[in-house]
């Protein structure tokens, strides 16, 4: 206690009696101004759904690593009702709880609420690596052809996801100010509806001819709806809107994507995000460079792209081995072959 007093980490009378529930309310209220809206919303959901019901009544200064470890273990085994079924939290969701709880308690240390974080002694939940299995090129073509033939109102959305590699949230947050139909480009940037993950996420993407045609038809249909509904059409200027002009709900878009998959006879386990994975995988398999694909996806660095899609650069190890063998034998470099070989690392 003397050491804590010297270091100014001795809890005050107010702090000593603070509950975990009250602590989280202070944390969320303080950090809100410095967080993206989506991040803060996720923190609050974790707090209200998971942290407060299990840990909220405890005194903050009494919260131990054993309490947190027991909490995480219970969450790993917990079953929640989803429709007619009971499902467990995914390993990634449990790990997310671990990360958010650690973030909050580290803030508490910096602000003097607790002398040290009990998370230092908590074992991190293991997250097994999952293999990316996007739709094949033929399956992607089937999905798009089926949606176009059925005049799916969200055909342009599926087309953009498959041809630009943009994230679902980025596409649903697009406004018509972000689209230049004459230049054939769209710009990903932050706005009131969409969060952008990093500075490199802000980017301008070139549209394929098919994507441009789909967007033009989509705009014409939206213009017709606006004129038909008149004042009832509540325009938010978003590209992908409901029949009355309001932004689309993410969960509803997921349901409509599942319907598009079913109509095309494709696996219902496919996520809309897999269209993004497919765009990257198909380009890399066709020989596009890692830096180009990384810029297109808006990754923070090409290292992320390489670690995620290393499987999509077929034969790169054999090519590198052959090149090195030729160098060691003193054979001249084949310029033609070098030009044809895709760059795996940029």
Detailed description of the structure:
The longest helix is centred in the middle third of the chain and has 21 residues. The relative contact order is 0.08. The radius of gyration is 25 Å and the shape is globular. It is 53% helix and 5% strand. It contains 16 helices and five strands. α7 packs antiparallel against α8 and α12 packs antiparallel against α13. The protein is mainly alpha-helical. It has two domains: 109 residues, DNA polymerase, domain 1 (Orthogonal Bundle), CATH 1.10.150.130; 146 residues, Orthogonal Bundle (hpI Integrase, Chain A).
Summary?
The protein is mainly alpha-helical. It is 53% helix and 5% strand. Helix 13 packs across helix 14.
Oligomer: single chain
Question: What would you say the CATH architecture of the largest domain is?
Answer: Orthogonal Bundle
Report the sheet-strand fraction. Answer: 5-15%
Q: Gap between N and C termini, in Å? A: 56 Å
CATH superfamily of the largest domain: Intergrase catalytic core
* Biggest β-sheet description: 3 strands, antiparallel
Q: Helix tally? A: 16
Task: Give, in order, the helices and strands.
Answer: HHHHHEEHHHHEEEHHHHHHH
Average residue pLDDT: 85
Number of strands: 5
Overall domain count: 2
């Amino acid at each position: 206690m003397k050491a804590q007093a010297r270091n100014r980490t001795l809890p005050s009378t107010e702090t000593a009696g603070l509950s975990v529930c009250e602590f989280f309310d202070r944390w969320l209220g303080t950090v809100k101004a410095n967080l993206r809206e989506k991040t803060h919303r996720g923190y609050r959901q974790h707090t209200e759904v998971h942290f407060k019901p299990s840990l909220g009544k405890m005194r903050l200064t009494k919260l131990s690593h054993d309490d947190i470890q027991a909490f995480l273990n219970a969450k790993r085994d917990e079953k929640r009702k989803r429709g007619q079924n009971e499902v467990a939290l995914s390993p990634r969701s449990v790990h997310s709880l671990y990360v958010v709880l650690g973030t909050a308690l580290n803030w508490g240390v910096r602000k003097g609420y607790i002398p040290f974080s009990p998370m230092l002694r908590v074992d991190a939940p293991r997250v097994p690596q999952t293999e990316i299995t996007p739709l094949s090129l033929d399956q992607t073509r089937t999905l798009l052809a089926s949606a176009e033939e059925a005049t799916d109102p969200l055909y342009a959305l599926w087309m953009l996801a498959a041809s630009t590699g943009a994230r679902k949230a980025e596409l649903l947050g697009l406004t018509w100010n972000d689209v230049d139909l004459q230049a054939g480009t769209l710009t990903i940037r932050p706005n009131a509806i969409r969060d952008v993950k990093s500075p490199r996420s802000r980017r301008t993407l070139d549209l394929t001819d098919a994507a441009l045609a789909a967007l033009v038809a989509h705009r014409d249909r939206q213009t017709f709806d606006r004129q038909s509904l008149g004042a009832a059409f509540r325009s938010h200027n978003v590209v992908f809107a409901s029949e009355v002009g309001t932004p689309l709900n993410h969960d509803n878009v997921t349901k409509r994507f599942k319907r598009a998959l079913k109509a095309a006879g494709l696996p219902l386990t496919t996520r809309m995000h897999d269209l993004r994975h497919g765009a990257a995988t198909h380009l890399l398999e066709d020989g596009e460079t890692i830096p180009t694909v990384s810029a297109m996806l808006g990754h923070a660095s090409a290292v992320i792209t390489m670690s995620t899609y290393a499987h999509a650069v077929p034969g790169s190890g054999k090519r590198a081995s052959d090149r090195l063998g030729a160098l060691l034998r003193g054979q001249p470099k084949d310029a033609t072959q070098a030009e044809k070989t895709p760059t795996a690392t940029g």
